[in-house]
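re: the backbone from monday

yeah here it is again, tokenized this time
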């Protein structure tokens, strides 16, 4: 096994030039005698410190697994940071939109659609991918959840076929230890996010899907979070500006992407993340703050404007809940935990329930 995500030659050139965004969708692996992982950590990579040949994208393959940080190189037993994300000056608003539109057009046109499906929630991110790629659409959630209703209405507007996977408590409970094992985490938030991804990926794999296109990265890159819109008045961010808060959130992507990659691949398919291609990232980083969040409070404004090329306004400017909330997985996992005796008066009661399920699963 060598490098995943691009060619060895491309990585060698990036190593020589210190170019953090060399025109790829991410990469990780071994090039010559060096372990490498791209600047956003779009593929996970783990190694065993005292065994130079022992490395994998999945920590479960190793007796001792240490994460290689995003943007890093490991050579001769030493790990060093090589690539950092660019911090360009913002461009004029119209120019930023043109650059983003071109980047998205080129990236989406280059996506291989064989064996591909879209994880579809009805929001602007997944709807743009659905409209532009013209592949099967799948959504997941509990009956009457926001995501299922939004996905059905958006699919109708796009005149697209949609497969709806309805969750129940039995399915969710059975998936908890598998997901916690796959992602190597037991905290409630990470497991809540990973559960619908895993269950959906597992179902898609049974239907012959090889790869699942996700909208990951769009909220971080384009100012989709309320805490970014409220900067500097939101205590959840330290930045003094919307653009600074956006960059703060982009910095969380490596940790998130590792989790999502492990959850989806554990389900039997590979994730595809077009919004995180280097050319889209490079264009997004040039957007001024008022292209991320308008004075009227519209979040992800630039992406929504570009999305109008593919989508009706009703979808392009639609608000959407986070996956764990829109699918009702967060609410229902809390309910399952309480039914199992892990009450809310207990500290981190859902996490305690997950750890209990994992101990039972491992036994």
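seq for it, each position gets an aa:
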């Amino acid at each position: 096994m060598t490098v995943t995500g691009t060619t060895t030659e491309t990585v060698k050139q990036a190593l020589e030039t210190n170019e953090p965004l060399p025109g790829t969708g991410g990469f990780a692996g071994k090039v010559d005698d060096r372990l490498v992982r791209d600047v956003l950590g779009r593929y996970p990579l783990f190694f065993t410190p005292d065994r130079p040949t022992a490395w994998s994208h999945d920590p479960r393959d190793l007796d001792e697994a240490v994460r290689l940080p995003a943007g890093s190189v490991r050579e001769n037993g030493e790990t060093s940071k090589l690539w950092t994300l660019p911090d360009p000056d913002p461009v004029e608003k119209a120019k930023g939109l043109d650059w983003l539109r071109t980047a998205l057009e080129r990236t989406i046109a280059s996506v291989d659609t064989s064996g591909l499906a879209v994880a579809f929630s009805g929001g602007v991110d997944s709807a743009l991918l659905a409209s532009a790629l013209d592949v099967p659409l799948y959504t997941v959630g509990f009956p009457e959840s926001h995501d299922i209703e939004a996905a059905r209405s958006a699919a109708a507007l796009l005149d697209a076929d949609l497969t709806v996977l309805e969750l129940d408590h039995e399915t969710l409970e059975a998936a908890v230890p598998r997901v916690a094992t796959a992602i190597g985490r037991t905290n409630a938030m990470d497991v809540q996010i990973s559960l619908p991804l895993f269950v959906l990926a597992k179902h898609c794999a049974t239907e012959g899907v090889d790869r699942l296109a996700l909208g990951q990265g769009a909220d971080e890159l384009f100012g989709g979070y309320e805490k970014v819109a409220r900067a500097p008045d939101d205590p959840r961010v330290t930045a003094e500006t919307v653009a600074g808060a956006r960059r703060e959130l982009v910095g969380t992507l490596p940790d998130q992407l590792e989790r999502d990659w492990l959850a989806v691949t554990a389900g039997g398919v590979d994730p595809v993340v077009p919004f995180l291609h280097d050319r889209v990232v490079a264009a997004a980083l040039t957007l001024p703050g008022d292209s991320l969040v308008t004075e009227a409070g519209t979040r992800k404004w630039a992406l929504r404007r570009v999305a109008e090329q593919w989508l009706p306004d009703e979808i392009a400017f639609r608000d959407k809940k986070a996956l764990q909330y829109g699918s009702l997985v967060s609410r229902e996992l809390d309910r399952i935990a309480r039914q199992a005796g892990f009450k809310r008066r207990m500290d981190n009661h859902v996490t305690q329930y997950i750890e209990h399920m994992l101990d039972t699963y491992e036994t």
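Residues 59 and 184 are 8 Å apart (CA to CA). The chain has two domains: 8-81, 93-326.
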